């Protein structure tokens, strides 16, 4: 079975990605100021971005 689509029945949803060193440093600087983990910071950033996209689409 291909994992190229979202499977709502997956037991462990996970997204892994590589970032350029500069972008990772900027992410860490921002999230440390907010006292968030990388995962929490990334989840919130993605949620905000998806919300903006949906707002523009409507």
Output the radius of gyration: 14 Å
Which residue ranges are poorly predicted, with pLDDT under 50 across at least 5 consecutive positions? none
Strand proportion, as a percent range, falls in under 5%
Shape: extended
Order of helices and strands: HH
Quick recap of the structure?
This protein is an all-alpha fold and about 60 residues long. The protein has helices spanning about 20-35, 40-55. The model has no long low-confidence stretch (mean pLDDT about 90).
Write the layout of secondary structure elements.
Blueprint lengths: L20 H13 L4 H20 L1
Question: What report would you give on this structure?
Answer:
This protein is mostly helical and 58 residues long. The chain contains 2 helices and no strands. The protein is extended.
């Amino acid at each position: 079975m291909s994992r190229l689509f979202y499977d709502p029945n997956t037991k462990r949803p996970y997204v892994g990605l590589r970032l350029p060193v500069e972008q990772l440093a900027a992410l860490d600087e921002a999230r440390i100021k907010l006292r968030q983990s990388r995962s929490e910071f990334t989840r919130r950033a993605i949620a905000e971005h998806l919300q903006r996209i949906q707002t523009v689409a409507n």
